[in-house]
């Protein structure tokens, strides 16, 4: 049985259900009203600013009948209905997260054990079947990367991958970039050298949050792609030494790129980025682009470099990597704010041609949320 009580002269209500009490403030409830005078019917955006709601808002009466909570607010004398399920889904009267470096339930961290079950989708299916597309996008969101197989082996096919969920983010490299051996390259990515696992473009603010790499030719020996979960690497560092985790999350590194005429890109961000409540939200790690670190106090610099070294060792640990070879027509999408990517060295014999581009995660998450909402509506 669900019951409702009003407290503190209408300052808040408490809903008791299944032996648990959940509280909601009057001002929060009024601000989150979904009536047509408060929210636009078409898009749900607020029609009122907070200044339009009386600062002394309180709950004059409260009734719960079935799955609907009906509240009347003073001094407006305004009555609003709330679905009980919506209130419970958006409850904030919960135990605070403790510690730092936690991840949400939608995130699954991983190590080399994921090699046995690399998330993968079929290009034809995800292009024509919303259920398949939703599943593939959900894997990108959950694991931070996913492969795509059986795509066309045609120039610029990677744009068809981006079209599945969003838009290309253009940079100084253009709308896309070619990845193959070059003479006197402007970037080490365009050589046959192996690359340490890294996040791309840490010198940008904000960084491109997604990268797409698409294989068109792959007859050279070697060159396997590798991914490492930066969130899992950060978790390992925290488990081994909390002080080292703290120093990499509390002080900014500096990153810089100046490999082209009239292009000087700089950023100042921590290698391990946390939200104010301690959630792990980002990793920036790229030894090629690290500038002089100047934001760490003298008495913390030794610890900072020890932590930086250890994080790199964890990232380089074979037990952390998932390795796969991309064949022509295959691609993968990687969350560049979380998952580090690399490649093994490859020989000059044969050919190796990849095309890459950047996109933004908000587009992918928006597409995923829309598909999931449509599935829920169809089930009701």
TrEMBL record:
Q: What's a Pfam family this protein contains?
A: TauD
GO BP, sorted A to Z: carnitine biosynthetic process
Claim: ATP-binding is one of the keywords in the record: no
Q: Write down the SUPFAM superfamilies for this protein, in alphabetical order.
A: Clavaminate synthase-like
| Domain TauD/TfdA-like residue range list | 122-358
State its cofactor.
Answer: L-ascorbate; Fe(2+)
What does the UniProt keyword field contain? Answer: Dioxygenase, Iron, Metal-binding, Oxidoreductase
Q: Which GO terms describe its molecular function?
A: 2-oxoglutarate-dependent dioxygenase activity; metal ion binding
The record, for CDD domains, names: CAS_like (cd00250)
Database matches in PANTHER family: GAMMA-BUTYROBETAINE HYDROXYLASE-RELATED, OXIDOREDUCTASE AIM17-RELATED
Q: Give the family, as the similarity comment puts it.
A: Belongs to the gamma-BBH/TMLD family.
Q: What is this protein called?
A: TauD/TfdA family dioxygenase
Native organism is Parasedimentitalea psychrophila
